[in-house]
Structures
1.
Amino acid sequence: TRVVVLLSGTGSNLAALLAAHADPAYGARVVGVVSDKPDAGGLVLAREAGVATVVVRPGDFDDRAAWDAALAEAVGVFRPSLVVSAGFMRLLGAPFLARWGGRVINTHPALLPSFPGAHGVRDALAHGVKVTGCTVHLIDAGVDTGPIIAQRAVEVRDDDDEARLHERIKTVERELLVDVVGRVAREGLSVDGRRVRIGSGG
Ligand code: GRF
């Protein structure tokens, strides 16, 4: 299964996927990495691993829709079966979802539907929850609102700050993402409304 990863940041989730895909039995291969930011650290990781990279910068396009369409095209060049958004800090618009919807998954560092958006870790900490976690879900038109594929809990400690909590979450998150991407690649996904099951049967 050909996988394209969308990222905007350091790429620790990408690094975990690259480590996993070295095993032919994993079932998924990262064939391309696409970013909105030319200086995303994850692009360096991809290049070091010999994986092709493409940057699609919003500033290079007249408007949001043009950028969205260009992003969809850039992803299409790699002919992926699955698109994984891992720390991609842009919303995917209707043109992109029209083409890739149902095959795009996202990882979020909170237990959705709690704490969606760009500051899920900070918001969970501020709310005083004792347990947070991470979620892998299908992307729909909303912000972190798509059907949930898998989740894992992570404890919040009294002396946590955002960075320390996010690191603890990321340790669990990349394991969950590697597990889910491999299983989806090998077994497929079946979606019934908001209920998602890994494993064909569909
Ligand atoms: C991850 O925690 C992801 O859920 C969040 O941003 C972080 C990206 O980390 N949206 P990395 O770039 O994969 O290290």
Note: The pocket of 5-O-phosphono-beta-D-ribofuranosylamine is lined by residues 7, 9-13, 42, 86-87, 107-109, 170, 173 (CB under 6 Å).
2.
Amino acid sequence: AGTLGAAAAQSGRYFGTAIAASRLGDSTYATVAAREFNMVTAENEMKPDATEPQRGQFSFNSGDQIYNWATQRGLKVRGHTLAWHAQQPGWMQSLGGSALRQAMIDHINGVMAHYRGKLAAWDVVNEAFAENGSRRSSNLQSTGNDWIEVAFRTARAADPSVKLCYNDYNIENWTYAKTQGVYNMIKDFKSRGVPIDCVGLQTHFTGGSSLPSNFQTTLSSFAALGVDVALTEVDVTNASTSQYAGLTQACVNVPRCIGITVWGVRDGDSWRSSESPLLFDNGGNKKAAYTSVLNAL
Ligand code: XIL
């Protein structure tokens, strides 16, 4: 296959990218994105600060811009994200306790109602664990340890057809405490019937470190709990070809690894642009890492 999306589709997977609404007018960006990918995540436009800037007043303009652009071109869309300690609107940052708990529930209901039946998946909860494997402290965590399962139960009721994912970073290494913390939560959710369908591993790999040799073990271990896994925000310092090939191969080797999303199109579009971590250079040309990914799919 001649594109990332088509190559991934040969094994029933997708290959996606983060899209920024503000860049869609850039023809190189839009052309490369529409040609190569078959899944899209809004880089910022479906986050709580974007979708509910004032309490109870929802704003879907930029999220819909991305949704419409993608679906008009045959690309699917992942929703990102409903409950997160970061990128909360100011009004939410200043809430706590039962008021924040209710605001979280109302937010999930409001956003999911708008996109009901339209998305492939939602990252319902993002980045709720600390590096030591315990829960990250946040205003949401302070509302009670059950905030994550309440978010998932609310989400399932709001849109029964969309896949519900837990998403986090630094959960790629199987022996890492944070990976184990997330794994134990998913195991507990599955044993108690808390609705969850997928785990997103952000896969932001940083310099020097090679691909964890147990990365595939992490993917297959999560999958063995009865959830799909996906690599949701991939970028790699200097776009190491071996790391890109390795992470792609790990996904391909695990039947329930359903797709890979890179966190941007060209290096200059990346939140880590100084590390040139993506698959296309600033001219929209394919880098060596592109070929290593395509060959591994
Ligand atoms: C990043 C975006 O890429 C930036 O544009 C923004 O300023 C901050 O957020 N984990 C996530 C993503 O789940 O939403 C983050 O995206 C990167 C880290």
Note: The longest strand covers residues 76-84.
3.
Amino acid sequence: MTEAVFAETIAKDQRVEPRDWMPDGYRKTMIRQIAQHAHSEIIGMQPEGEWITRAPSLRRKAILLAKVQDEAGHGLYLYSAAETLGADRGDLTRRLIEGRQKYSSIFNYPTLSFADVGVIGWLVDGAAICNQVPLCRSSFGPYARAMIRICKEESFHQRQGYELLMTMMGGTQAQRDMVQDAVNRWWWPSLMMFGPPDDQSPNSAQSMAWKIKRHTNDELRQRYVDMSVPQAEALGVTLPDPDLSWNDERGHWDFGAIDWSELQRVISGDGPCNALRIENRRRADSDGAWVREAAAAHAARHQEVAAP
Ligand code: BYC
């Protein structure tokens, strides 16, 4: 495959596959985005995972356990997709724990009450779905295909979060207050998940041209706000933005200014939980080293025995 064939594949909306010729920049961008996405899933297990032992009932514990396991699964498909591009999984993990590769800003905030589990399902998984459904049509085949299953599971995750919040909103005043407090803390960070505004997004133009991204950061953020406002109303919570108002002319909800300095701070390592998240990941990596070594030794021995 040559450059012309690559260009034609993109123009015709077909998929680029791992053995096809692709520009170095395309390969680099795909590895960067897929690795960041995989890291987000794996680090994203921590904030909710902290509540597994403290879930208020066996039913809630079983649901949460299954959700966090799904996130591990998403991370693994995504690392596999990155490997099809020549990336090495161990190297990607090293880059993460050495702070050389990013993961989503949202997972650097603490989960202070069980209502946070519901709000992560509703708002964080809701934002993830908005962002990831278009990625099912992303131009790189293994990423697009991984995204189909991931989106199905994310949509289930979102419903479990909403159902949990509905239950809490039908409970005591203290439970309703807990939900409102969690919404107040997670709303603005969830808007930041979509990335910097379009005029400050260095990667968007090229990623849109290569059809890796199908919509800009601001387009998806607006879609998410439009989707979330009626859901908040149905739930009976207030979104913490006094500037939120329906704009008849635009046919969209207007919303207040986002504090972009907060996103920059969190991305550059200075969010409330960055150090803790990375320290936990580093410990899990070193605690698991013997398992990886044993598995590699077993595979090598197996190959030796199988060789004629
Ligand atoms: N946090 O030029 P831009 C989940 C980075 S997991 C941190 O707009 P791009 C879930 C950006 O990567 C959700 N970094 O970039 C799991 C870029 O970095 P470089 C994860 C951010 O790539 C468990 C730089 O800033 N989802 O759902 O065109 C439980 C400039 O930005 C953030 C994905 O990863 C951020 N918020 O667009 C529950 C989706 N925003 O160039 C839920 C896949 C931007 O310095 N990724 N950056 O390395 C994407 O769709 C795109 O990569 C983004 C950014 C829209 C995130």
Note: The mean pLDDT is 97.
4.
Amino acid sequence: SLHEGENGFPFVTLQTAAGASAKIYLYGAHVATFKDSKGRDHLFMSSKAEFKQGKALRGGIPICWPQFGPGKLPQHGFARNSTWQLNDTKVEEGVTSATFLLKDSEETKKVFPHSFELHYTVELKGDEMNTVFLVKNCGSDAFDWTGALHTYFNVAAIDSTSVKGLKGFTYVDKVQDAKEFEEKGEDIKFTSQLDRVYLKGASNDVHIQDTEGTEKVTFSSWKDVVVWNPWVEKAGGMSDLGEGEWKKYVCVEAVQVSDVVRLEPQQSWSGTYAFSKL
Ligand code: BG6
């Protein structure tokens, strides 16, 4: 069932018998919290997130689609700024889930003249959150898209956090003129703004380790992994981020950008992305 949140933004709550829960807004099909049965919220939400049409919520899991990053469309596309429908909620043995739907509309056709459906399922399986993201071309022409599940993970302190599992992958460094490098280290550490697209990095599990534990992140179909923290200067320019909150999160995102996905009429693409504490 739907509840009314900040500024009247409706949200749904998922709950498992063991006590894990999630809060998901219809706006953006935005997962804002995921608390496991021990009460730990795996996701970061900004204390200054703005609940306003046309503005993305800062934190949680924004869905970037049909464009990741800057380009013809507004930054990160329109899915995160659109109100989705709640299609279905299910409680089955050990799994509680909700499926959200976004279809083309007059609004979306102005900027993206294609007919599509996005089906996004969020599942709580014990203390794991699993997502299934499906894109379907419902029109009669092919279209291309890029996208991401732009997850903000809570960390105890960014300067004692490391991201593991990306050694040997090539990355595009967005803070160094989009130059390509090979990741040499077992651990990615944070000492200044870090904004990298690890190409084909999603073929590995990624671990986010902080002083309190380790989050394991797994991917299928999604090819790339973006790792991002804005650090102090860039965070200063983000009006919807609370004071000092840049220290409290790291984004480890499931991304499809190095290969643009082309969908022929009636074709679909789906990818899964899941996380849990070790
Ligand atoms: C990241 C980009 O994925 O998203 C960053 O790599 C960007 O460059 C960040 O700043 C946040 O974007 P936005 O539009 O949500 O402020």
Note: The first strand starts at residue 2 and ends at 4.
